[in-house]
């Protein structure tokens, strides 16, 4: 097997970086929920690592990246995943004669994992954990694997020439549309818009977004699948767009609300990361800056759609990932400068005409529509059979204690030497006695 050791090393690092994003997402989402459901929220991300990994090695890789029309048929693909990723022995194949195919499969697996985990933010505080586990497998099978094939695996959108460098369509629009569907299936949280549902721990939110930002360099620059100049361009574009988006969100907050918040800087950074994802290897740095500016400003307003239209997207998956993904995908129709696959063209501003812009609109519409419809059906079936939503009593009590028999914070422990105080150290029992 002929491989390039530098590119192989870079892809191994990128794979680890992208996997780190899912625990980062767990911190990000966990901090944004109320204290009584922080562990459940984080568990929804971590269990996605388990379920999607099993589905991927069993059949997911084969469904997403096997050649179309190879005569093997769906059932053969379904049971052929183990051999294709090399679990029946060392796979001697190399991707593009550059690095082992096993590394490519592992890299793509991490994308599947975080796409599924992203959806969970829309249904925080109210989803049955068992129903979520079942949903992750079914959704990955019926939605993520086919969409990944359409865009990256030689499917119909690949053939048409859609540009999606690192997953704006496959990951973010896909997950955002699914999040909207599940939010509609499960309905609003008890007390929504009547009770305060603020993030309980903004420190965790900032830690989470820091891990996401760090891991996203593997997500975007790693998607070049080589250690070369395009990977460097994707790396720089990721940083520029994210920083400017975070700043733009803060400016909108300051002008609109009078305060620049930590939640705002975290949300703005994620909006920039999302929007630059499909474009990072196709555009110049100035265009990345514009994409970041648009994403930060527009998504700052888009998170309010849930109040206008009456759907409870708990952690703003729709406003950030769906809207941000559309911004980045459609922007390529205007500013794409470096298309490199057959059928792809430059954007309108670079003399490419209108055809690429049409494709960049078609992709989000097709993927978003498919994901929404199939997710809604999956959600309804699960809800009617095993139930997707916890009882109102469990929701009010808190899913952490009712589902997992744990709490995220133990602030009221009674010590044998005294009684703890939430405002200070434990007070010895002797000090509470009053002399006669």
Q: How would you portray this structure in words?
A:
The chain is mainly alpha-helical. The protein has one domain: Ammonium transporter fold, CATH 1.10.3430. The strands form two sheets. A three-stranded antiparallel beta sheet has the order 3-4-5, with no helix packed on it. A two-stranded antiparallel ribbon has the order 1-2. A hairpin with a 2-residue loop joins strand 4 and strand 5. Helix 5 packs parallel to helix 8. The chain is globular, with a radius of gyration of 23 Å. It starts with a helix and ends in an 8-residue tail after the last strand. The relative contact order is 0.14. The C terminus is likely disordered.
Q: Mind sketching the topology for me?
A:
Blueprint (H helix, E strand, L loop, with lengths): L4 H28 L5 H28 L7 H7 L1 H4 L9 E2 L3 E2 H19 L9 H24 L3 H5 L7 H19 L15 H20 L7 H29 L4 H15 L8 H18 L2 H5 L7 H19 L19 H31 L6 H6 L1 H6 L9 E2 L2 E4 L2 E5 L8
Antiparallel strand pairs: 1-2, 3-4, 4-5
Helix pairs in contact: 1-2, 1-5, 1-9, 2-3, 2-5, 2-6, 5-6, 5-8, 6-8, 6-15, 8-14, 8-15, 9-10, 9-11, 10-11, 10-12, 11-12, 11-14, 12-14, 14-15
